[in-house]
Amino acid sequence: MGFRIHFGCADLARTTIGRTPDPLWEVLLGMHMLQTEDEPSVFGAWRQRARAKLTELERELLVLAPPVGYSPDFLTPAASVNGLDAGLAAVAATPQHQLENELRRLSGEVCLPGWTRRLAAGDPGVLKKVCEGLRHFHRTKIAPQLPSMSPTIARDVKLHSDTVTTGGFEKRAKTLHPAMQWGPPVLHVDMRHINRDLYLRGRGLRLVPSFSCWPHPIMPARVLHRTGLVTTRRAGNAVRHTISPIGTHILTGTQA
Predict the structure, then answer these.
(1) How far apart, in whole angstroms, are the C-alpha atoms of residue 134 and residue 122?
(2) In a domain, 34, yes or no
(3) Where does the chain have alpha helices with state H?
(4) Quick check: is 121 in a domain?
């Protein structure tokens, strides 16, 4: 059992490391963390503040992001790597068939409220509300943490980038995470709930830093996102690619 990612020469050449967190991934992972009691010494203070300031719209959106199980891919479009505005524009432009398919899949795991039927039908007004909620969550729950966390992320990204520059991706792949093993040309991910092969076929990977998933920042792979690996399962270490720990004091400070 496990997830096996097959690389070719072109994939190794096209694997890149993003320099900043993906804003909509931070929103999704933040919504996940908000619904758990995980790592109270790290996220407890942030969670308490965030819960106290949740709007009714944000509460409604939590149903789309259960902390365990499937979360729809349309919440984290590839365009989000270019910034929050670009990501939300992509969410607003999600094809109706994608909305319908992904919400049908989600309905097999959680009980969805009636408004999601209008979302599945591609109702522009509902999509606009979803985008407003995602934007507000980022502005009030994620963005206030960025000034403290950005220097740590920048140092860690530089460390990983330097490793790739001096030793190539294969050297970096060997130390991504204890749940991962590099056996050229395949990256094996130890996942008990899945048995699958992914052939990149020249697409490569984009590794994106994140600080909303504890105990370590993660580098979710963009191709893995499109295949559902990261967005569909939040199963402990199986979806976490390590950069380095972030100091507890950053997340438990007094920032609003």
Answers:
(1) 17
(2) yes
(3) 9-14, 23-34, 40-52, 56-61, 84-92, 96-107, 115-120, 124-137, 146-173, 222-227, 229-232, 248-251
(4) yes
Strand order in the sheet with 2-6: 180-183, 186-189, 2-6, 195-199
Residues 30 and 218: beta-carbon distance below 8 Å? no
DSSP classification of residue 7: -
Per-residue pLDDT reduced to its tens digit, 142-195: 999 888 777 877 887 787 788 777 877 777 777 776 778 888 899 888 876 678
Q: Which domain holds residue 102?
A: 2-251
- Asked whether 12 and 172 are in contact (CB, 8 A), the reply is no
Report if residue 86 sits inside a domain: yes
Whether 66 is covered by a domain: the verdict is yes
Residue 172 three-state SS? helix
Candidates 173, 224, 215, 170; CA nearest to 194 is 224
The per-residue pLDDT for range 45-100, each reduced to its tens digit, is 889 999 999 999 999 999 999 988 889 999 999 899 899 999 999 999 999 999 99
Residue 35 has pLDDT above 70, yes or no: yes
